[in-house]
Every structure is written in C-alpha cells, then in structure tokens.
Automatic annotation (TrEMBL):
Family under the similarity heading: Belongs to the PPR family. P subfamily.
Pfam families for the chain: PPR
Highest taxon, organism lineage: Eukaryota
Record's protein name: Pentacotripeptide-repeat region of PRORP domain-containing protein
Keywords: Repeat
C-alpha cells in the first residue's frame, strides 16, 4: 500500500459504508486515526478527522486527543493548538444546538468548555461563556473566577476585564483570593 494512500483508503472505506447505509461507530474512526498517529502522521490523521466531521460522523474526544498528542510528540505545538481549537469550535457548535433545545444547561458542560478554552488561551470565548452562565441557569462558584482573572492578568494582560470579573464576584457576594487581587493591582500600576 502506498504511503500517501492511507487516508484515501480510509475515506474509501467510510464512503463505501455510507453508500450501503451503514453507520460507522466513532471507535472505528478512532482506530484509523490512531493507526496514522502511531506512524507519527499528524497531518494525515488531522485530514481524516476533518473529513469524518464534514461527512457527518461524530468522532469522540479521544480522537481529537490523539491528534493533539501526535502534534505534540512530533514537536509541533502550533499544530496541537490548532487541533485543540478545532475541537473547541465543534464543542461550541454542539453547545449552540443544545441552547436552542434546552432552557438550562448543566454545570459540567460549561466547566468543560471553559477548561478547553483555557488550554487554547481563547479569552474572548471564556468571557462569552461566563456571560451565558446566568442566562442559562448555571450557577458559578467563587473559585471558578480565579482562573479566568489570572488568565486575563497574566496572559492577555487585560486588567480591565479582570477587574470587571472581580466586581461581578462582589455583586454575587463572592471573595477573590489575595493573589489574584494583587495581579489586578499590579497590572493597573503598569
């Protein structure tokens, strides 16, 4: 089998199954992507993953994790970050669909998305999720504000947003830890 034909062979297999009306379980997609990952073929595994998503198959998180792992192992942090962002974009689409169908969303759903955006340092998306929480009935806890405030101070260098989150905490009778307060004060002085 030619080296460049592995992705094409997998896509042919999936299109054949789709033509026959068969539903391909996510674990099979995982097997193909993992096989490419073992050969350290990050780009090929990402191409296969994107194609599966475009054809309507819904790969699980472990498929994305394998792709991110291969990029990391190959010494390509930019590829790993890009793959993680694609995962978060897919999760955001699923969240938008869930918002249309349900009045309230669960706490773990919001928490998982926020953690994913922390990994990719997408501060605007974190802020949107924090704003959506009250609207969809998800109650925030005081310690959950600490990480975003520190992210806005240390990574985004934006003390105004951090201060806004701190004031939001005060309105909800929550206390910010002293270290995070010091980050805000330090950035204001700079």
């Amino acid at each position: 089998m030619p080296e460049s034909g592995e992705v094409e062979l997998a896509l042919w297999f999936f299109s054949l199954a789709k033509d026959k009306g068969l539903i391909i379980p996510p674990r099979f997609i995982f097997c193909f992507v993992k096989a490419l990952a073992r050969k350290k073929k990050a780009e090929e595994s990402k191409v296969l993953l994107k194609e599966m998503i475009s054809r309507g198959s819904s790969p699980g998180n472990e498929v994305f994790n394998v792709v991110v792992y291969v990029y990391s192992r190959n010494g390509d942090p930019d590829g790993a970050i890009e793959a993680t962002r694609e995962l978060m974009n897919q999760a955001q689409e699923i969240l938008a669909e869930a918002k249309q169908k349900h009045e309230k969303l669960s706490y773990p759903t919001h928490q998982a998305l926020i953690q994913g955006y922390f990994k990719t340092e997408q501060s605007n998306e974190i802020l949107k999720l924090f704003q959506d929480r009250d609207f969809f009935g998800v109650k925030a806890r005081g310690d959950e504000y600490t990480k975003p405030i520190q992210l806005f101070c240390l990574v985004a260098m934006n003390w105004r947003i951090a201060e806004m989150l701190r004031m939001e905490m005060n309105l909800k009778d929550m206390q910010l830890d002293p270290i995070s307060k010091e980050y805000i004060v330090f950035l204001k002085k700079c």
